[in-house]
């Protein structure tokens, strides 16, 4: 079996490569030339190219048995056209490659498709309605466009396609969330916003990779199916426990500084106002979203993938945090 992985040098893609290698497979990675050494070090066959280049897809997709499309643009300063070119255009080529190879496609989507304020007392499951997205949220807009394209084309072309919807992902080789948590802890204190008893809306990259492999292996019928992958294995850690686990893994014992939610909101609002001076309209709602993430409960329901694919996340949060820190 040859599984083609895009985004193989990134957070999710690199963990997918490791998971495939762990079970004795040698995956293939469509990767930018400057990242070739990274995927080769992980044990993948590298095919240099861009996910928006049809010729690169033709080279990479020869004799494959499955595709994991994890490549995506997340850079906040890119124009919408670039987000659309990579996130939607690359997905269109992934679908075409899956059709030509008669291979299943696992598309790495995001809970951002629901809308940034998605909440439900019963939990946000896969049939939750899609809420309006801000015009400036280029990432969420193009991830929704890409997933809707996968849904439509899978039905039209009789392709077996699965969308995996993680929430915030952390772990080894993360360039966004994990480094910020570590930098916060290294300041010499652990900030606890509010009571600190909520559970953050995040998931370990190794668990996402495990879910992706479960979707690849499942004997699903042709068509489209979406799954939330939004929890680590139990026990769940609270906001305070999560940050303290990072401190312990770093060998630190910092004091906990309690910050009232009202103070955090004021601080976030002031910081957002400063950003608006630099880039008007670009960071609208960012401060409020950050406070909501830190103080809110994880609203996403992962029961469908557990029920239908019999998937269980292999890593609990404490183990995952220690793995992430030890990789530094």
Outline the structure in words:
By secondary structure, the protein is an alpha/beta fold. The protein has a domain of 219 residues: NAD(P)-binding Rossmann-like Domain (Rossmann fold, 3-Layer(aba) Sandwich), CATH 3.40.50.720. The protein contains twelve helices and eleven strands. The strands form three sheets. The chain has a seven-stranded parallel sheet, sandwiched between helices. A two-stranded parallel sheet has the order 7-9. The radius of gyration is 20 Å and the shape is globular. The two termini are 32 Å apart. About 5% of the residues have low confidence.
Task: Give the CATH architecture of the domain at 3-170 and 202-232 and 298-317.
Answer: 3-Layer(aba) Sandwich
Helix content: 40-55%
- The arrangement of helices and strands along the chain is EHEHEHEHEHEEHEEHEHEHHHH
Overall spatial form: globular
Briefly, what CATH class of the domain at 3-170 and 202-232 and 298-317?
A: Alpha Beta
Number of separate helices: 12
Low-confidence stretches: 270-286
Summarize the biggest pleated sheet.
7 strands, parallel
**CATH fold label of the domain at 3-170 and 202-232 and 298-317:** Rossmann fold
- How are strands sequenced across the largest beta sheet? 3-2-1-4-5-6-10
Q: Find the count of extended strands (DSSP E, 2+ residues).
A: 11
The CATH superfamily title of the domain at 3-170 and 202-232 and 298-317: NAD(P)-binding Rossmann-like Domain
- The Cα radius of gyration reads 20 Å
Roughly what is the average pLDDT, rounded to an integer? 92
Query: Ends: how far apart?
Result: 32 Å
Q: Helix/strand-derived class? A: alpha/beta
Strand content: 5-15%
């Amino acid at each position: 079996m040859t599984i083609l992985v895009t985004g193989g040098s990134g957070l999710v893609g690199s963990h997918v490569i490791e998971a495939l290698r762990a079970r004795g497979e040698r995956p293939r990675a469509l990767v930018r030339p400057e990242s070739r050494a990274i995927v080769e070090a992980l044990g993948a066959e590298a095919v240099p190219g861009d996910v928006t280049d049809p010729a690169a897809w033709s080279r990479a997709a020869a004799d494959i048995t499955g595709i994991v499309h994890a490549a995506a643009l997340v850079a906040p300063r890119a124009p919408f056209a670039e987000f659309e070119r990579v996130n939607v255009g690359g997905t269109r080529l992934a679908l075409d490659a899956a059709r030509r190879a008669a291979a299943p496609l696992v598309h790495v989507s995001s809970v951002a498709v629901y809308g940034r304020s998605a909440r439900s007392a019963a939990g946000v499951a896969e049939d939750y309605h899609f809420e309006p997205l801000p015009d400036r949220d280029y990432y969420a807009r193009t991830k929704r466009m890409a997933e809707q394209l996968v849904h439509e084309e899978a039905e039209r072309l009789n392709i077996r396609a699965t969308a995996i919807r993680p929430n915030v992902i952390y772990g080894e080789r993360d360039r966004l969330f994990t480094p910020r948590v570590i930098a916060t802890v290294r300041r010499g204190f652990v900030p606890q916003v509010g009571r600190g008893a909520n559970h953050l809306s995040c998931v370990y990259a190794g668990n996402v990779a495990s879910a992706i492999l479960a979707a690849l292996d499942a004997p699903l019928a042709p068509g489209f199916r979406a799954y939330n992958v939004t929890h680590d294995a139990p026990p769940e850690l609270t906001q305070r426990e999560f940050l303290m686990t990072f401190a312990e893994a770093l060998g630190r014992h910092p004091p906990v500084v309690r910050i009232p939610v009202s103070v955090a909101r004021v601080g976030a609002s002031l910081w957002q106002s400063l950003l608006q001076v630099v880039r008007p309209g670009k960071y609208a709602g960012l401060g409020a979203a950050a406070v909501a993430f830190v103080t809110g409960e994880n609203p996403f329901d992962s029961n469908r993938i557990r029920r239908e694919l019999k998937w269980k996340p292999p890593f609990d949060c404490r183990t995952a945090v220690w793995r992430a820190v030890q990789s530094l």
